[in-house]
Design goal:
EC 7.4.2.1, MetN_ABC_transporter-like, four-stranded antiparallel β-sheet, alpha/beta, P-loop_NTPase, binds magnesium ion, 9 helices, ATP hydrolysis activity, cell membrane, about 40% helix, binds adenosine-5'-triphosphate, 10 strands, Rossmann fold, about 250 residues
Length: about 250
Amino acid sequence: MTEPLVVLKDVQKHFGDLHVLKDINLEIGKGEVVVVIGPSGSGKSTLCRAINRLETIESGTITIDGKTLPEEGKALAQLRADVGMVFQSFNLFAHKTILDNVTLGPIKVRKVKKADAEKRAMELLERVGVAHQAQKFPAQLSGGQQQRVAIARSLAMDPKVMLFDEPTSALDPEMINEVLDVMVNLAKEGMTMIVVTHEMGFARKAANRVVFMADGQIVEENTPEEFFTNPQSDRAKDFLGKILTH
Ligand SMILES: Nc1ncnc2c1ncn2[C@@H]1O[C@H](COP(=O)(O)OP(=O)(O)OP(=O)(O)O)[C@@H](O)[C@H]1O
Ligand SMILES: [Mg+2]
């Protein structure tokens, strides 16, 4: 593996009595694309949220590029800006234009000049194929277009790693591929990515590794090819049996 960029060591997390992350150890190398897959409630979103420090952890450590995630304050805001996150729901600001949605973070958090932020935003919107929509408002775009704007908005912060939590699961089927294509290109360009998705096509095309979670644990890790064709654990076999028959 290349130099590790995201390192989780012995991470534990409870929600009340529920042990939602059980002793998670995971290293993600620079430029690596890891797909996280597993049944509903297995802790995939919590894992992503912990890496972005949207959730606290009780013990263990999470480091991004050698730096431990701080508890709070300015250092946290800075480090969080290094971690881009794209959710199932696009969370764009409804009352702001597409362009403003993409420039807001760089201007407010990165202190980039407006003109520079706009130039870069237009390049990114071009890259995700929605530059011609820059002056529109989110509600005027399709779900797939909005999700591509959300990706551009994350990229505008120059993150070191991008987290995707089921980015296509709220989309109509015909819009899924346009979002996955953007993600595949991002992976090809060398972005470090952690992607929660059940899209096996994406995993096969873009992932270096599949991490299978069940009941808060990492049960199995393998290449996409090996994982999908030759799962080792009963949990993974059972899970794949279910998603493959749908
Ligand atoms: N804020 C919270 N308070 C209490 N319990 C929570 C909270 N967030 C998540 N949980 C519980 O923690 C467990 C793991 O949730 P999580 O959202 O990480 O699962 P997931 O693998 O992302 O599931 P899905 O595939 O449905 O998105 C679930 O049992 C969930 O109900
Ligand atoms: Mg989830």
